[in-house]
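Justification of resources, computational component.

The compute hours requested in this renewal are based largely on the per-chain cost of generating structure records like the one below. Each record pairs the submitted sequence with a full structure-token output. That output is archived, and it is also reused by downstream analysis tasks.
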Amino acid sequence: MKKYVLTLFALILLAGTSCQEKIDIEKEKEAIKAVIEEETNAAYASDFDRFAATYVQDETNIDLRAGKSGYSYDVGWEEIGSAFKEYFENNPEPVKNNEVKTNYKIKVYKDCAWAVFDNEGYNNEGEFTGKSIGVNFLEKVNGEWKIVYLSRVGITSYNVLSQNEPVKVDLISNGNKLNADFYPSSENEIRPTLILMHGSPGGEGDPLGLSKKLSSQGINVLVFNYQGTWSSEGLFSFENSMQDVGSAVDFLNQKSNIERFNIDTTNIVVCGYSFGGAMALTAALYNTEIKRIISIAGADQSVFGRKWLSDPEFRKMFESMLKKSVYPEGPIKYDLESYIKHWLDNLNYFDQVKHAEQLKNRDILWLGGWNDQLCIVEEHMLPLYRKLQELEAEKIKIKVFETNHSFSNVRDDLASTILNWIKKIN
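The structure output for this chain reads:
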């Protein structure tokens, strides 16, 4: 009897383990990506056997392609396979695969999955030639993923009816790859482009929700995390963050990016929120390529530094905030002690009012909140604005809302103000 009970217990345990067997989702996603990439590589290699091996190969196969010039719709492997085999036989020479697949979204089930991704094309000179949205349904056959449905919808020459999804871009600063997203404009013509910078420590999303609002109204937006913050490589410092601003400007002026994102290089705006506002203005002091600037509740780091030295309560509060940001407990990789020392030893370097002469010919918009208790308007914004008035600067504007540092109750008005200012070049 005891032996019977133990055997029964073992069977129940085995059955429970089998029922709870988990799918390694990330492993399956990588396998799915590999099949999708192999299908494309095999096509460019004119290798029918490799190409066919990525498909289910039965009557359920569907191949759907659409673009501005028309569409094709083929059903069943007999029709699809024979068409590709004939094409490869007539074009046997391999050609370079210039397609780049990004922004994969994959849903995995036990024996089937779907994948959606951006598919960008380039010529042999690296110039952008077009973009499509790819969709694949896949089935698992004998433990291997196979494509059963494939569609490509060319979108390069279409106007966007719904909100664009951000595109991951390769933004390199000082040799380090930054976590960067580009929100393409909803309009299919050259457009103004906004570099939108986070506060500190910021986050990996859309600062104040501005990117989605502005891109839907015809403004390209580039958002990134500074070196050493969140998932960006490198170490964080004032100088590195200022270098990041310059790298972002250079990125937008690259020919391939101008063509890919329809960038109007005569209307590139550097904009930042809180610490980002400080970076926008301070970087502009030392970078003449920055012509148009928006500071949203932007700080003057020299003001914070002098307050740190003179106000013990402020220092306690600010130091506590900085300590919480240090990696691994926080998202910023830096030597906090060295960071603070360098900052306090170089307050004149960061003093926007002291260097106001460098900004008098720039186009500048300040946006603040009367109830902001961190970047107080009278301390951080008005002194520079008044100094530039003394210097007879002609292209400066300030608007202060009835709000606090978060702008949570006026974000639509904030976006509208920015949009109107960007589109009106003095």
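The mean pLDDT is 90. The longest strand covers residues 128-141.
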